[in-house]
Design a protein that fits this description.
- The chain is α/β, with parallel strands linked by helices.
- The protein is built from eleven helices and twelve strands.
- It has two domains: 108 residues, 3-Layer(aba) Sandwich (Cobalt-precorrin-4 Transmethylase, domain 1); 140 residues, Tetrapyrrole methylase, C-terminal domain (Methyltransferase, Cobalt-precorrin-4 Transmethylase, Domain 2), CATH 3.30.950.10.
- The strands form three sheets. The chain has a five-stranded parallel sheet with strand order 3-2-4-1-5, with helices on both faces. The chain has a five-stranded mixed sheet with strand order 6-7-12-10-11, with helices on both faces. It has a two-stranded antiparallel ribbon with strand order 8-9.
- Strand 10 and strand 11 form a beta hairpin.
- The relative contact order is 0.14.
Amino acid sequence: MLTFVGLGLWDERSITVEGQDALRSADSVFAEFYTSRLMGTSVPEFEAYHDVSVEVRDRAGVEQNPAPILDASEADDAVFLTAGDTMISTTHVDLRLRAHDRGIETQVIHGTTAEAAAASLTGLQNYRFGKATTLPFPYAHGGDTVPGSVCDVLDDNRERGLHTLVYLDIKQERGEYMTADVAADLLAEGYEDCLGVAVCRAGSPEPVVAADRLSVLAERDFGDPLQLLVVPGDLHHIEADALRELGGAPDELTDPV
């Protein structure tokens, strides 16, 4: 059996009770933290809290050489851990299909996601979000501004009045995490200086939500990662009230449609 367990958003306690049960009954525990990670804990702290030993795999060890994970799953019960939800954003469908090819039973135990947290913390309605996008570091795509693909997603969503969730680039191997101020500066210069909402350290005891013009957000220091950005579309009056009350948005930027 191979059980995929989402760990939630912040620390060793963010896992669900169901996920914790699966973790503690497993014979082998694997994890990857190259797509995202729990910023409120470390692997040793996680292992000590749950009384387990975790083998952390790099990208190649999951995508190119998954044999140790599959071998362990074929012989006994193995768990594969990721931050957030294991099949949302940090998707590992390929690994699950490889397991099925070998006749290995699988199951998924979900954890909460940054997408859900962005709607919950900002007051923006979940069903009014369109396609999400990821803003890369300029050096990562060989340019010095915002990729056209990101602008296309923003334009398409805004034309339909929808909000855009902008995931911010992570280079785990380099210890680099894009912050909301950097993202806001890139978008203000390379896309449009419109209303943006920074969502920082979702899932932590003290998350931060700040709504303002992107050029204004670019001047702020939002502290430690992980962070993301939302570019709102048309606002319902309750959403406008929420951004003003919960994110400090100026009145002139939050007129409801």
